[in-house]
């Protein structure tokens, strides 16, 4: 009997179409190969973002939310968020509605990938980004709006802080509860997966009661894991330390071998994810996942790359690696291994899309669909 593995998916906007079409059969083939046909993926197509708006008048239809809730996992392509007016980010909303408080972004160099580093093989870390607090909470008011004027008056009259009336304002909330549950999740992951170090990335020297508190609260939790963690480099324990965010950007370039897991508040994790992706070829190869206590949603770090929408040029690697992360999450380890191996072999043979080819000498890029076909064939032909 064939075991059906049901996976809800959101195709995504912009380049999401091309990426999905190049990836779907690769993911199916990985499962087919790994389990000799005894398991098979059944996809459930879900609407969100621009496509949902066009078809249903809603950005995030209730049916989409209910299906993700019922299945507890989903894989999604990028969704477009207009800058300035329009709607707030559907991506951020999805993370908030399912309380997906952990964002995980592995940054691992694969031989063959272009890199600005001399020894890119040392790059193998995971960025964990708190997903529900900090500036992404979106508490902000436009300059000279009624709300910002009320806020500025409050600051002037009650707090002795004087700002001009043409100031836009935002609030940066970071709580002990939010930081503690996030830190616990990441430490449990680090222990389960035999990682070697966890580094808190903060700007606590300047923002003492938000980022500084994040650092303090993370240490508070870490001290409860004293049997597994070390703060001074004892052998056979996971090193727990911290770096100021600006220094961290320098460290990942100059000393990547010293870092393993980076524990970040939301905004630091956002910036650092793209910067670190650049060390291993760019956003086209950077996967990600968002975890809560009940639901996990797997999505690439990159956005909808609107410039390349429908041109069959985008890189589906990030999405495929998200697929491998999802397979591991649902205990299809063998399918994940087969898929990752096929990607490594393909990139190692310099079969890459335009975003990577243009950073390499004498490499002709393949199309998004061709890249998917090559990987699928590799998996099919695997002994
Ligand atoms: P982007 O990630 O779409 O693009 C940044 C650069 O990387 C562009 O040059 C793009 O062409 C390139 N790029 C991205 N993905 C690529 C891929 N798979 N292959 C090859 N090249 C790739 O970021 P942006 O331009 O800042 O954002 C575009 C839209 O995507 C915005 O509406 C933004 O809000 C949204 N966005 C969505 C998500 C998400 O869905 N999780 C994440 C980030 C941005």
Fold topology:
Elements lengths: L2 E8 L5 H19 L4 E8 L2 H8 L5 H10 L1 E4 L13 H8 L4 E7 L15 E7 L9 E2 L4 H14 L9 E2 L5 H17 L4 E6 L8 H13 L5 E2 L7 E7 H10 L6 E4 L1 H12 L11 E3 L4 E3 L18 H13 L3 H16 L5 H4 L10 H14 L2
Parallel strand pairs: 1-2, 1-3, 3-13, 5-11, 8-10, 8-11, 9-10
Antiparallel strand pairs: 4-5, 4-12, 6-7, 12-13
The chain binds nicotinamide-adenine-dinucleotide.
Notes on the protein architecture:
The chain has 383 residues and is of the alpha/beta class. The protein contains 13 helices and 13 strands. It has helices at 16-34, 49-56, 62-71, 90-97, 146-159, 176-192, 211-223, 245-254, 266-277, 317-329, 333-348, 354-357, 368-381; strands at residues 3-10, 39-46, 73-76, 102-108, 124-130, 140-141, 169-170, 197-202, 229-230, 238-244, 261-264, 289-291, 296-298. The longest helix has 19 residues, at 16-34. The chain starts with a strand and ends with a helix. The structure holds nicotinamide-adenine-dinucleotide. Nicotinamide-adenine-dinucleotide is lined by residues 15, 78-81, 91, 283-284, 299, 302-308, 314-315, 318, 355. Nicotinamide-adenine-dinucleotide (NAD) is lined by residues 15, 78-81, 91, 283-284, 299, 302-308, 314-315, 318, 355.
């Amino acid at each position: 009997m064939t075991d059906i593995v049901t996976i809800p998916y959101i195709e995504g906007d912009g380049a999401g179409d091309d990426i999905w079409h190049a990836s779907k059969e690769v993911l199916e083939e990985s499962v087919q190969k790994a389990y000799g046909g005894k398991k098979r993926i059944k996809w459930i197509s879900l609407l969100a973002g621009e496509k949902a708006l066009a078809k249903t008048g809603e950005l995030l239809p209730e049916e989409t939310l209910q299906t993700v809730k019922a299945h507890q996992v989903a894989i999604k392509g990028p969704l477009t968020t207009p800058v300035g007016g329009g709607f707030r980010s559907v991506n951020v909303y999805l993370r908030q509605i399912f309380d997906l408080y952990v964002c995980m972004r592995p940054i691992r160099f694969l031989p063959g990938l272009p890199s600005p580093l001399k020894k890119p093989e040392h790059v193998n870390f995971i960025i964990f980004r708190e997903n529900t607090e900090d500036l992404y909470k979106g508490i902000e008011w436009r300059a000279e709006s009624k709300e910002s004027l009320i806020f500025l008056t409050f600051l002037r009259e009650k707090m002795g802080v004087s700002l001009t009336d043409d100031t836009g304002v935002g609030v940066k909330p970071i709580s002990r509860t939010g930081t503690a549950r996030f830190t616990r999740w990441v430490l449990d992951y680090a222990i389960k997966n035999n990682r070697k170090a966890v580094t808190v990335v903060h700007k606590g020297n300047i923002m003492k009661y938000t980022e500084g508190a994040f650092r303090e609260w993370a240490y508070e939790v870490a001290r409860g894991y004293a049997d597994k963690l070390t703060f001074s480099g004892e052998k056979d324990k996971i090193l727990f330390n911290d770096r100021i965010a600006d220094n961290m950007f320098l460290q990942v370039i100059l000393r990547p071998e010293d870092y393993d897991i980076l524990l970040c508040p939301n905004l630091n994790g956002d910036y650092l994810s793209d910067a670190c992706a650049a060390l291993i070829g760019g956003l086209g190869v950077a996967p990600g996942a968002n975890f809560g206590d009940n639901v996990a949603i797997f999505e690439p770090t990159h956005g909808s790359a609107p410039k390349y929408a429908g041109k069959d040029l985008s890189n589906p690697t990030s999405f495929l690696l998200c697929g491998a992360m999802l397979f591991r999450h649902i205990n299809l380890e063998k399918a994940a291994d087969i898929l990752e191996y096929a990607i490594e072999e393909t990139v190692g043979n310099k079969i890459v899309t335009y975003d990577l080819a243009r950073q390499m000498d004498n490499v002709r890029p393949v199309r998004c669909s061709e890249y998917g076909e090559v990987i699928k064939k590799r998996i099919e032909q695997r002994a």
